[in-house]
Amino acid sequence: MKLNFTRVCCPSNFSTFIKPSLCTNLHRPLCSSSLSSSHTSLKPQIPLFLRPPMHSATVSDLQKWHDWAKCLASSVGTTFLDSDNGPDSSLLCRELKWLVEDTIEDHSVLSQMSIENGKRSVRLRAGVEDLYNMWKQRIEERKPFQYIVGCEHWRDLVLSVQEGVLIPRPETELIVDLVADVVSENEDLREGLWADLGTGSGALAVGIGRILGSRGMVIATDLNPIALSVAAFNLQRI
């Protein structure tokens, strides 16, 4: 049986391919610029920091939400940490700061939130009601923060992630470092064919591809159509 591969074009200097599921859609290739019809309904979640600032709120309403969210985070203490090595209040407060930074278009507002300018309108990438729901999901449902904001910082990249796709862990960066060491010892390997089996967000495929440069090729595969969609999105952005 002939497998149908489609190149994912991206501005970097390496060749990366994504192969559809081995079980389904074998002859329906995934394209970078426009997903094939079988994947158009699986559009990846756009990370919060990339969304247009289509919402607005007053500084007063934003401050009210922030005070509530900080109070909720502080109430956790070390409960999660003691029960299952989850985040403590200190980490949750840092995450709250990151959430605010991703949400607000004009970061100068951050230094003015406690000043008497409550009626000033602020442009946001998510509505205040959405922010309440996001933080409830983080604290009450223990939803991972990366799924809340839709991205993960990995190496020098910011990768899109969402539920259904594993969050790249820092330990996986060691695999890219290992490839870099191997290739530096044997330059012929730069021209080889590398495979990322179960690519997920595409983190390893992108990381290894950047090591190989224009001479190498990486094939990224996954059985999960959500993962294929997210990986393609990440490849387009890098």
Automatic annotation (TrEMBL):
Gene3D superfamilies tied to this protein: Vaccinia Virus protein VP39 (3.40.50.150)
Domain of life: Eukaryota
InterPro entries tied to this protein: RF_glutamine_MTase_cyano, SAM-dependent_MTases_sf
Classification via SUPFAM superfamilies: S-adenosyl-L-methionine-dependent methyltransferases
First and last residue of the signal peptide: none
Name of the molecule in the record: Release factor glutamine methyltransferase
Native species: Carya illinoinensis (Pecan)
